[in-house]
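Journal club side-thread
Mid-discussion, someone asked how the predicted structure for our own chain would compare to the paper's figures. Pasting it here so we can look after the session.
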Amino acid sequence: MTDPRGQMGTLVPLSQADTFEPGETPGGAPGFPGARGTAISLADDPVDAYWNQRPPSMPLTEAGEAAITGLDFATGDNPRLRCAPTNILFDWYFEMDVNRIVQRTNDIQMLYGSMGIERTIQLDQTERPADIEPSVAGHSIGRWEDDVLIVDTVGFLPGILNADGRVPHSGELHIVERFSFDPDTGALRREYVAEDPLYFEGQYRGSDTMLLSELPYHGTTECDDRTYR
């Protein structure tokens, strides 16, 4: 940690630890909520303070606020703690499990190493079928703009978009992802925008970068139910 006392700061590579002042964090980022020395860690119930008492990480509508009222994100109400799929955004990079992408003539298959989400991105469709059955993966239509793959997905089951940020989503969730690949570095970058007119005030935006793995894809990583209580 950047604080050798282990009370504040954040984790950095050992080779860089001496370049930080005690308690400093890279790029001015805040210390991880709940880490020793932060305000949450000094609460009477740090677990509850971290998971349940913080405000949502984005503005929610009244319906969105009501959707998380009474939920305990430190227990079984949190999908990531009960070994259940969360969503196509979070599970893509959670725990850095190895994912697999298979490109075929009319579609692209994305297999998630974390919690086993399987997505099929339809490349030969421009309109949605009338009978979409809601699912964790939703229904995805993709198109190419030069070397960028744009994926438009709807048809989700209601769930949790970000457990750490206490952000729920309804069945009206709509996600647009932009995938771009750097052949020189092997980096696959994804930028995404999520909208949910029922639960969100505004948009949920983010990005992530995955690198080619030296380890093979072996299917879904085993998981044991956990709880912070």
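Post-session note: The mean pLDDT is 87.
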